[in-house]
Amino acid sequence: MSVTKPTKPTEPTESAKPTEGTTPTEPTAPEAIVVGAGPGGLAAATALHRAGWSVRVLERSATLEPIGAAIVVAPNGLRALDRIGAGGPLRGLAAIKGAAELRRPDGRVLAPTSSEAFVARFGEPMVVAARADLMRVLLAGLPADTLRTGTTVLGVEPGDRNRRAEVTTTTGTLTADLVVGADGIRSPIRGALFPAHPGPRYAGFTTWRAIVSEPGGVPGETWGRGLVFGTMPLADGRTYWYATANRPEGTEHHDERAELLRLYRDFHAPIAQLIAATPTDRILHLDVHEMAEPLPAHHAGRVVLIGDAAHPMTPNLGQGGNQALEDAIELADVLAGLTADQVVDALPTHTARRAARTAEVVRKSRKLGAMAQWENRGAVALRDTLLRVAGRLAPDAPLRPLDSVLSWRPPVRAA
Question: Do 346 and 327 meet the contact criterion of CB atoms below 8 Å apart?
């Protein structure tokens, strides 16, 4: 089911200039093109729109499908959404109540926590929302003619102080004062800006995700040997589940559900029941990639990269989407009140704000993911013992590593 039926906007044109002898009119709004209609792209479009920009969003898909099953919106993401009027509707979808646990495959608890402890520490809940619900909230903040679907970007010319950026698409060539590359982990725009950069690398494990109409029991994760299974409730009573396994890149199976039932056959209930209740065609299977080597910058000329286009990361901290939301708000803050002529000089400030932070989140997520995916029997036994002891000595131990990640707050000047 598509999220919306967009209408096509008119072609962007160069900013109008008064002719000689006429009374000057109010300066036209600077123009931005956002490439990619995922959460980060739509949030950036909304933030720029609220900051006075004229915005168009280009999406290659013919319809805006809710790819990705569900998305975790953490406290930092909620604060970002607050800046564009979207945090309230998302908070209404918070469904994690009471206990949350990290367990072994036999069901033994390694590290307990709770939603109450989480809110007490970070001031906000962890919201798990169907991706379609988040997309609807974000689209509600944009004019109806902002989104153009079925438009693939073929190339980009970043422009400079004297030239607007140029975007070549399957439907024509467009120009703008700013181009936001929110085109995902395989970003063609990133490749055009930084052709010598190696890009994302395979993280060594693959993931499966789905939403099922079955109760998921106590929310949390179960760590085995090279296997992780997680469950989280949605507000409508359904369960979002995800699973990981160490595999060579590109490994596929004729029946992914059967493979999952084999992998998790010895895990505690209701893991097998959740897998069995999920139609095979509703299971999303994707290899995990990350940006091991940070980009030299998140911008070039009049083009800026956000989200997975700038800093793809493993899903272990649940921060991929949240960092994209931070990017969107920081970008609009940097550009608020500026004219089109000032964009090129302003974008280095965005890189300065975002590059070090996102590189650190990528590193933290990689580190946690590596530990979760350990296979060696002795290493796993040591890991589980340390987790269990830490949980007994310090009840907040599972939450401490998140402090620097979830503490982000929007800039004071953000609109």
Answer: no
Q: Which of 244, 214, 242, 234 is nearest to 131 (CA)?
A: 234
The model's pTM is 0.92
d(CA 357, CA 362): 9
Residue-wise DSSP of 377-388:
HHHHHHHHHHHH
Angle between helices 75-82 and 320-335 (to 10 degrees): 30
> Alpha-carbon distance 306 to 36, whole Å?
10
- 72 by Cβ neighbours in 10 Å (0-12 / 13-18 / 19+) ranks as buried
For 376, phi then psi, to 5°, come to -60, 130
Burial (CB count within 10 angstroms: exposed 0-12, middle 13-18, buried 19+), residue 219: buried
Class of domain 31-96+122-201+290-373+383-406: alpha beta
Q: What is the pLDDT along the chain (415 residues), one digit of tens a residue?
A: 344 434 444 344 344 333 444 455 556 899 999 999 999 999 999 999 999 999 999 999 998 775 668 999 999 999 999 999 999 999 999 999 999 999 999 999 999 999 999 999 999 999 999 998 999 999 999 999 999 999 999 999 999 999 999 999 999 999 999 999 999 999 999 999 999 999 999 999 999 999 999 999 999 999 999 999 999 999 999 999 999 999 999 999 999 999 999 999 999 999 999 999 999 999 999 999 999 999 999 999 999 999 999 999 999 999 999 999 999 999 999 999 999 999 999 999 999 999 999 999 999 999 999 999 999 999 999 999 999 999 888 888 889 989 999 999 999 864 4
DSSP state letter for 206: E
Residue among 343, 17, 385, 2 nearest 161 (CA): 343
Structure tokens at 175: 């120009």
> What SS3 state is found at 198?
coil
Taking the C-alpha atoms of residue 254 and residue 258, their distance in angstroms, rounded to an integer, is: 9
Sketch the domain layout of the chain as residue ranges.
31-96+122-201+290-373+383-406
